[in-house]
Sequence to fold (208 residues):
Amino acid sequence: MEKGLLVVISGFSGSGKGTIVKQLVEKYGYSLSISATTRAPREGEVDGREYYFKTVDEFRSLIDYNGFIEWAQYVDNYYGTPRKFVEKEMEAGKDVILEIEVQGALAVKEQYPNAVLLFIAPPSAEELKNRLVGRGTEDSATIQKRLSRAVEESESMNNYEYIVINDDLEECVQDVHSIIVGEHSKTNNKLGFMEQIKKELALFKKGE
Ligand code: 5GP
Fold:
């Protein structure tokens, strides 16, 4: 059996990537990696569901124990992808989605060259600001920080393999799913299959 793929999804804060990821999991059954963070839970967030909420000390000791595939600092807080879950799911042939920011995405690609890197973008900058303000989960200083961070992140978009514009949610989810399906047909993701069929064919030849 082929291993599952790592699917890295990034996008500006407010791009709608969280909703897209949720739909990919619900509609198509992808595995979702739950990150650890030192950020405080937002209203309605549950430990172990949106994130594993950690203290800075706990987070640092996970770094020391090589517990993360990658970790990064984003606007005053640490975020990291726990290693065990991701490796177990991939071994079991499941595709795993990581919803992480750009530094983390690049670190993942270095370790897992077959990882697919997708960047979700809003149709325009104006639309991004409206979405951030409209969602009402952050104060205006935090919104400003996140918009400044988006300016930096926009410089990294070129490092991604796919840019998917989130204008219509349904369409965007469908586009991401199609990209992942396509990735599975790449030669590098079919090594096990090719080896198997070559062996089978060789047996035919023997019995000619
Ligand atoms: P938020 O605080 O809005 O939940 O997330 C802030 C940013 O951190 C988002 O861009 C999100 O994708 C990113 N993020 C969440 N988990 C991880 C992680 O494990 N590693 C990295 N590098 N970024 C993450």
